Amino acid sequence: MNILSGLSYEQIYVINSIKKICILKNIDAYIVGGAVRDALLNAKVRDIDICVTKDPKLIVESLEEIKEFKYYSEFQTASVEFKRGVSIDIIRCRREFYPEYGTLPKIIPSDINHDLFRRDFTINALAYDLKYYKLIDLYGGIGDIKNKLIRKIHSNSYEEDPTRVFRAIKYSIRYKFLLYDRDEIISCASKGIFKTISNDRIAKEISLLCTEKNWKDAFLLFARLNIFDLNCNLIGKSNPVVNYDHVNIRLLNLFYSFKDKRDADILVDNSIMDSDLKKSMMQLKNIDVENFLKETIDNYEIFRQLKNMSRYELAYLSWNFKLTYKIYNYIYNLKDCILCINGNKVKDFGIKDGKSVGSILRYIKKLKLNTGIEKDLNRRDIQNALEYKDRKF
Ligand code: CTP
């Protein structure tokens, strides 16, 4: 089977230039992982990984048309960006071992067979030999693609690298494949395997899941596999204020759906996610949403309470049905309300004291926010405003 037929002209051009160098330098080269999987699934191939049997530096030094490249000596991996808009990772074939569960693996250069064994799932442990144009499938990956299964390769795969649980969910929701290891994943989650990895690693996987088209299914799987205790009816809850096209809103929705807000620490305490989003989540932990703004129907009060809130805080509050239309009203009517008069105009009426000027302006704003009307300022309004001065509004 020639998997190259599913790639773009530019991708094939670059792969052939790598192949030529490999043949000249007596290096075996294989397309591996997601590119082979996606080509077999007739899905768009985005990232291409090529595994090679010598140091990738030997290839990169002879390559032409490189726009940029990075070399990671610890993993003997070169990430190459070509002028033709194609990116390829060239990776030394290796075997991996984990000194402890949850740590990053130590690597030893090796051959393609070991390299395929180190991988997460059978569907990702496929290689395409560039020299002999043949597929290598040591673990039944092609069969699992046909049978729509996500299946681990080696015995302690999830304990060694708990991020694979999130990866399994990602492929399962993306391709609508079944989780062959479902029971094992549930058991691993209940044993607390995620405690062996940092919040950063979990946050990264969750953020990646949120970029998937079927992100809601991922959250539902979190609940079904007991990874997080979630209010499933809150997942993807729609209202006129939120737009789920933004990944951060999806992350916020997960935060909103946690039954136990202690789980939220993963989303708040990491260096991966957007800092404004994390800051908003911190603030939200301290708001009693049920009672927030519940009683008030005064638009000025609504404005005052919401004016310093971020778009994330507003979206979060809007998921509470008692607040939805207050938030909506704030965003579309109240937020940008500007008075026609200013302090100088008030002073023209002989009011000199700054505090009184402020009170009068606030009073006029209160009237405008609640009635939609701003009349020309007159003595009567000033008088009313001054009577209000000592009241809290
Ligand atoms: N891999 C693994 N275990 C991990 C991460 C990655 O075994 N924890 C292997 C898999 O074989 C995977 C390859 O490394 O196919 C490349 O990883 P990545 O780029 O994350 O995945 P892709 O398969 O390219 O999938 P995606 O389409 O989501 O990018």
UniProtKB/TrEMBL annotation:
<keyword id="KW-0808">Transferase</keyword>
<dbReference type="Pfam" id="PF01743">
    <property type="entry name" value="PolyA_pol"/>
</dbReference>
<comment type="similarity">
    <text>Belongs to the tRNA nucleotidyltransferase/poly(A) polymerase family.</text>
</comment>
<keyword id="KW-0547">Nucleotide-binding</keyword>
<dbReference type="InterPro" id="IPR002646">
    <property type="entry name" value="PolA_pol_head_dom"/>
</dbReference>
<keyword id="KW-0460">Magnesium</keyword>
<keyword id="KW-0819">tRNA processing</keyword>
<keyword id="KW-0378">Hydrolase</keyword>
<keyword id="KW-0548">Nucleotidyltransferase</keyword>
<protein>
    <submittedName>
        <fullName>tRNA nucleotidyltransferase (CCA-adding enzyme)</fullName>
        <ecNumber>2.7.7.72</ecNumber>
        <ecNumber>3.1.3.-</ecNumber>
        <ecNumber>3.1.4.-</ecNumber>
    </submittedName>
</protein>
<keyword id="KW-0479">Metal-binding</keyword>
<keyword id="KW-0820">tRNA-binding</keyword>
<dbReference type="InterPro" id="IPR043519">
    <property type="entry name" value="NT_sf"/>
</dbReference>
<keyword id="KW-0694">RNA-binding</keyword>
<feature type="domain" description="Poly A polymerase head">
    <location>
        <begin position="29"/>
        <end position="151"/>
    </location>
</feature>
<dbReference type="GO" id="GO:0004810">
    <property type="term" value="F:CCA tRNA nucleotidyltransferase activity"/>
</dbReference>
<dbReference type="InterPro" id="IPR052390">
    <property type="entry name" value="tRNA_nt/polyA_polymerase"/>
</dbReference>
<dbReference type="GO" id="GO:0016787">
    <property type="term" value="F:hydrolase activity"/>
</dbReference>
